[in-house]
Every structure is written in C-alpha cells, then in structure tokens.
Amino acid sequence: MWRGLYTGAAGMMTQQNRTSVIANNLANVNTTGYKRDRALDAEFHPMLIRRINDDMPIKVTDFKGFSLDRRPPAVGTLGLGAYTSEIAVDHAPGAFMTTGNPLDLAISGNGFFVIDTPQGLRYTRNGNFYRTPTGDLVTSDGQAVLSRQGRPINIPENATRIVVTPQGDIFADGAQVATLGFVEFGEAADHRAMLKQGNSLFYPQEGAEAQPATGTIEQGVLERSNANVVSEMVDLIDNYRIYEANSKAVTTQDTMLDHSVNEVGRL
Q1: Residue 191 covered by a domain
Q2: What domain range includes position 107?
Q3: Which segments in the chain show pLDDT lower than 70?
C-alpha cells in the first residue's frame, strides 16, 4: 500500500511539471520567435514481483517431480510510477506575420541570429530589431545584433531605404553596410545542440560549433510563436484528467491503509 501511495504521488508530481510547461507555452503564445516546450515523461524501472509464502504441497510449476523454477512463481511486474525525464524544445517553425517594417526579419528554415549579451554570445530567431538614435541595430531588449565578423551593426542615421537579402547582406540606400551573423549548430535535424536560456535566446551545448546557416532571411515579416492556444488547452485538459486519476489513486490507497490499520488490525 505504501508503494501505491508513492506511485500515485509520483504521477501527480509529473503532471504538475507538465502543467507548468503548458502554462509557460500559453503565456508566450504571442511572443515572437518563441519555441514551445514539451515535458517528456519516463517510467521508473518496473519491479518483478513473485508469490511468497506458498504453502501448497505441490507448486504450480512442478510436474511429476520436475521443477521448472525453484524460486517462487513470478506474478508479473509492478510499475513504480513516472517522472519528468526532460523538458524538450519543439523547434518546429512558427507562422510568418507580415509587418512591412524593414528591420523585422524572419528565418525560413534553419538558423539563428547572433546577439551580444552580458552572458556572452547568444542566438535567437526573434528578428524584431530596432535602430538606435546612433544607428546601431539592437534587439527589443537593447542588445546588439552582431555581423558575420562578430561586430555590432551600424546603419547610417540618414538611410531611408534598408534592404536585407536572403543571405543576410544589409544595404542602406544601395550601399552594403554589413552582413548579419547567421549561423546554425550541429546537423539540421539535431535541435538538441541548442539550449533555451529565456527571452527567446539560446546557447549551444558544450562542444557545438557554429557553421553557416542553411536557411534564408525574410525581410518585413516576423516568425510567430509555434505554440497553439487550442492544442495547448487540449493538452492542459488531458493533463488535468491524468492528475485527477492519480489523485484518486492516492485517496484509494490511503483509505485501504486506514482500514488495514484501524479495522483489520483490531481483529
């Protein structure tokens, strides 16, 4: 009975973690470049249980003096609950939203923009950039957007026509001023190379090396969050039902334990 309590409680804790992940996805459904998280569950290693105190004169596994197994017969396996093994990032592309702003950039395919932060180089797919009064290209948090050479990008203050090519070349009134830092890490399908930091920023796994991105840059559009309100709400409802089932299992085990101690023990 104690084991049943722990199994049900482990399931409730797992669903609490999943609820937190879903709530965070819903909170960022309108965050540009946001990539939704997924809580991945795993099962604790099941335990093999056997029948004990078998007082039968002839075991069910014995036949005419021949025993298949001298150990008590196996009853089966007993699950010990689940746990959250990983919070994985879903790197599926989000829908594009046209803004018409020449400094709004979206990435089609694989790739990240390079950002200079107090923690070092970070990478993002949020291309909602701004130009400071001095012409520096920055993120909405005021962090510098870097060029392919790793330097801040400056666009002349008097520039009236800004063009960004699919390869990241920036032209101001027909003159090229810089090339955006545009990289990816690992194989195109290996999204585990990038870890989420927050504020739409990522950093690479230790040992991952930057290489030229295989995607292209779209100007005048932004990549929306890939979290969908409807699907997240469906997951939240399903998560609540699983949590409720585990809660009832804990209540049932507690009731059985109460009867065992206060009624069977009295006899």
Answers
A1: yes
A2: 96-223
A3: 1-2, 50-74, 187-191, 264-267
**Per-residue confidence (pLDDT) for residue 49, from 0 to 100:** 72
Q: Alpha-carbon distance 13 to 235, whole Å?
A: 16
Q: Which pLDDT score, from 0 to 100, does residue 182 have? A: 95
84 in a structural domain: no
What pLDDT does residue 44 have? 81
What confidence score (pLDDT) does residue 51 get?
A: 67
- Helix/strand/coil for 189: coil
Query: Does residue 58 lie in a domain region?
Result: no
Partnered with residue 172 across adjacent β-strands are: 162, 175
d(CA 145, CA 157): 16
Please state the domain count of the chain.
1
Per this entry, what is the length of the chain?
Answer: 267
**Domain-embedded: residue 138:** yes
Which amino acid makes up residue 121?
L
- Model pLDDT, residue 39: 92
Residues 6+ apart with CB under 8 A from 112: 123, 124, 125, 182, 183, 184, 185, 194, 202, 213
Chain centroid, CA 33 distance in Å? 14
